[in-house]
């Protein structure tokens, strides 16, 4: 665990340095409220681990890892506004703390800082831009073109969650100057992990305790949001089993890279297993 904590620590230090330079100070405070309130840092960890798994130096991936976490947090600010969710990670959400206008500005600020971190690499910019398009399509689908079956739900999950996971892994591989086939395999791995993550998130919204989860539960039903349980009518246990299928496919994609079974690769494998059984 110390191995992973050190690497996530590098990302946190970079994020803190970026936010400390934000002007005006009021905006900096809002961005820090969003990003430094906690979070699993799963996506930046994937970026660093993918870079190392390919044989790169984790320092080369820190800017990309910090950037993908800022993009993720920007999307959460908007999610909370749409859902009227007043708690995020056990603290007031951005709109609940500062109001709708400042929260939207904070989301824009996070995206601006993120793209500044990606701007030195054309491939990175393309990867993140594509993920942002997918994310926007996912948000729109959830609001106006709701899925009605399992296949449509998985498309939504891929766009809403899988696309940003894919970007996280591809950025790490690009930082290590991996060839396009390896970049694609890491992207496939992470996209599958993201879909499994979203499916488990939907299950936890149905079954978990709000205090343990760090955010309100029952939101999917209350907001009439298309969760895996609602759309497919799978039981929570059946939905978790399907998440396991996605996890297994993610592991197959890792195997396709034929890379050495390093510590970084093992952590990536562990992540694919963890997203299925996590409790928060």
TrEMBL record:
This chain belongs to the protein called Farnesyl-diphosphate synthase
Asked if the record carries the keyword Transferase, the reply is yes
Q: Which UniProt keywords apply?
A: Magnesium, Metal-binding, Transferase
What family is this protein classified in?
Answer: Belongs to the FPP/GGPP synthase family.
State whether keyword Ligase applies. Answer: no
Recorded hits in SUPFAM superfamilies, A to Z, give: Terpenoid synthases (SSF48576)
Leader sequence segment: none
- Provide one Gene Ontology biological process annotation: isoprenoid biosynthetic process
Per its UniProt record, what Gene3D superfamilies does this chain match?
Farnesyl Diphosphate Synthase
UniProt xrefs under InterPro entries: Isoprenoid_synthase_dom_sf, Polyprenyl_synt, Polyprenyl_synt_CS
What cofactors does the UniProt entry give for this protein?
Mg(2+)
- Extract the GO molecular function terms from the UniProt entry: metal ion binding; prenyltransferase activity
Q: What is the lineage of its organism?
A: Archaea, Methanobacteriati, Methanobacteriota, Stenosarchaea group, Halobacteria
User: Which top-rank group of organisms is this from?
Assistant: Archaea
